[in-house]
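Lab notebook, design round three. We kept the backbone fixed and only want residue identities now. Task for the bench partner: fill in a sequence for the structure below.
Input structure tokens:
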């Protein structure tokens, strides 16, 4: 919502001109929120016996309901429990307006500051943040809830319906919204709302909620609360159906100690699993993740498809992730993107230190190096296996159907001390140039990287140095006449559509049988749920965007294995699913 739409009644209470309504009671919004929502869902009893609790609010507004729920949950929930708070918002407020709206209650000041520190940039889509030291995940769905809720994959324990008054904001109280709420509800899910409108009661009753009126707050006579007693809806795309969750405390083996394996390991470990990482090399992050410097580079695509949605969300998540992991991971801030004649500056992007990332992550994880292990062997020692093997991910019997290309990439080191006034920011176009950094006691600049498909040798080539310098010269013309001091080469794994694989590993032969009739259309017959290989998952095919993609892929994997809400839309998840290429071929009758 823009400042023009927002105004302050009596210089105190936030209100909307668009809907001619206030965000919370002018008497005491905090007490109102506690009465209408927390008390109505039966908090704190509702979350006492849950190791994970999921709540969905339709209408985030000022964040008041979130901060009071955060405060009460942290105070009363079991110490090892976790909460995911999902909230929709079509007209997100700015940080400044949220700060002002919540400034009335000093008891919430710490929680408010945590929210403001993690509050995302206002852009449509799914935005995941971690608060309370990782115990609370906030998943904000910016955009029209009629569009975002159908893209949400979650099992919700409680709902807050807090849109503006139904007679002023009819879109948030539609039959379609009620149907989505019912689809997301777990058996016995609680629901609370400030309204007592008959149309809302009838709409929620029609989709399976048992509704009752309750005493309102202040001058409002009645509110409503309810409980879901309906039946779960059928899966619309059974070939992408999520596997059964794995109980917390189970053991997980991860094959591969690159950036994908380490971030996935930490996410799963933080979520209550026992994790062991097996790395075939003598040290983790020694292959494609082993460069002395990397970049976080925006993916710019005007199409707005799943690839754009994924990489934009991944970049925002990676920036926050590495800042939280260790601020010293950032070698330099600022990146200038060259797009033909146009240049754009991204102040939060820049260069990062893979060695620092490696050291920080390995200190937190159980990693066994020099272990060349198969999924079958790993599964003998663990309840589930996640393959994060980069180019080796399809070298196993269970995963040999993964379509992965091997791409050779070489970077070039330049003697930075020979340059006067080197660029202060990362320059990025066809290639990239990283400002001076210390490498083994020498100050160097890094440029790269070459791209040679289906080449697997890692020798240093002078022709690749020349190509790297040619691309760098376009970014910074003074670079071509300076000496090369070395380089590094690694092999990266790409999928055919340059999106990663993240999800359960499907049984290729059983898929052919189960979905062979897809060529006649998805509604031709009732299809069985996806036949997966038991407790086998994969994250691979990250290409040259591993440091950007891995932290969000790790959260997706953790959510998949635990049964928690997916932090990305269904469309994005399906675009990452390991079975997507086989499904596309089956639809075409191939």
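Proposed sequence:
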């Amino acid at each position: 919502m823009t400042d023009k739409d927002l105004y302050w009644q009596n210089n105190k209470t936030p209100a909307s001109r668009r809907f001619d309504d206030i965000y919370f009671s002018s008497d005491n919004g905090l007490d109102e929120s506690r009465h209408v929502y927390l008390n109505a869902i039966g908090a704190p009893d509702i979350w006492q016996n849950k190791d994970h609790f999921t709540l969905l609010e339709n209408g985030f507004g000022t964040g008041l309901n979130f901060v009071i729920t955060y405060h009460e949950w942290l105070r009363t929930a079991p110490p090892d429990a976790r909460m995911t708070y999902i909230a929709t918002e079509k007209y997100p407020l700015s940080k400044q307006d949220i700060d002002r709206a919540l400034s009335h209650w000093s008891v919430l000041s710490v929680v408010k500051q945590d929210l403001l520190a993690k509050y995302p940039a206002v852009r449509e889509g799914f935005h995941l943040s971690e608060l309370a030291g990782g115990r609370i995940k906030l998943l904000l769905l910016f955009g029209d809830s009629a569009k975002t809720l159908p893209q949400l994959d979650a099992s919700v324990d409680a709902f807050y319906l807090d849109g503006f008054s139904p007679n002023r904001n009819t879109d948030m109280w539609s039959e379609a919204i009620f149907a989505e709420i019912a689809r997301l509800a777990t058996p016995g899910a609680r629901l609370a709302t400030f309204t007592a409108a008959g149309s809302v009661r009838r709409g929620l009753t029609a989709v399976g909620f048992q509704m009752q009126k309750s005493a309102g707050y202040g001058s409002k006579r009645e509110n409503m609360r309810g409980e879901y007693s309906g039946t779960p809806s059928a899966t619309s795309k059974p070939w992408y159906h999520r596997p059964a969750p794995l109980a917390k405390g189970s053991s997980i083996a991860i094959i591969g100690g690159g950036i994908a394996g380490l971030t996935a390991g930490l996410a799963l470990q933080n979520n209550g699993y026992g994790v062991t990482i097996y790395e075939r090399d003598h040290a983790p992050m020694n292959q494609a993740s082993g460069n002395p410097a990397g970049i976080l580079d925006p993916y710019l695509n005007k199409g707005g498809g799943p690839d754009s949605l994924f990489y934009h969300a991944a970049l925002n998540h990676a920036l926050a992730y590495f800042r939280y992991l260790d601020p010293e991971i950032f070698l330099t801030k600022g990146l200038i993107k060259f797009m033909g004649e146009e240049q754009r500056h991204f102040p939060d992007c820049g260069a990062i230190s893979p060695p620092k990332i490696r050291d920080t992550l390995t200190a937190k994880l159980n990693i066994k190096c020099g272990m060349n292990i198969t999924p079958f062997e790993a599964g003998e020692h663990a309840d589930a296996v996640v393959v994060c093997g980069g180019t080796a991910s399809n070298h196993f019997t269970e995963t040999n159907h993964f379509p992965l290309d091997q791409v050779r990439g070489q970077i070039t080191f330049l003697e930075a001390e020979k340059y006067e006034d080197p660029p202060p920011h990362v320059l990025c176009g066809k290639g990239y140039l990283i400002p001076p950094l210390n490498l083994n006691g020498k100050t160097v600049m890094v440029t790269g990287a070459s791209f040679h498909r289906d080449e697997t040798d890692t020798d240093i080539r002078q022709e690749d140095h020349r190509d790297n310098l040619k691309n760098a010269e376009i970014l910074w013309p003074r670079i071509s006449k300076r000496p090369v001091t070395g380089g590094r080469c690694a092999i990266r794994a790409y999928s055919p559509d340059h999106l990663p694989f993240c999800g359960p590993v499907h049984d290729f032969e059983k898929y052919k049988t189960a979905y062979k009739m897809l060529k006649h259309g998805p509604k031709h017959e009732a299809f069985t749920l996806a036949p997966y290989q038991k407790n086998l998952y994969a994250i691979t095919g990250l290409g040259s965007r591993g440091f950007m993609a891995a932290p969000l892929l790790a959260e997706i994997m953790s959510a998949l294995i635990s049964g928690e809400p997916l932090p990305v839309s269904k469309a994005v998840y399906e675009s990452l699913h390991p079975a997507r290429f086989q499904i596309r071929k089956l639809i075409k009758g191939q």
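Keep this in mind before ordering anything: The first helix runs from residue 29 to 38.
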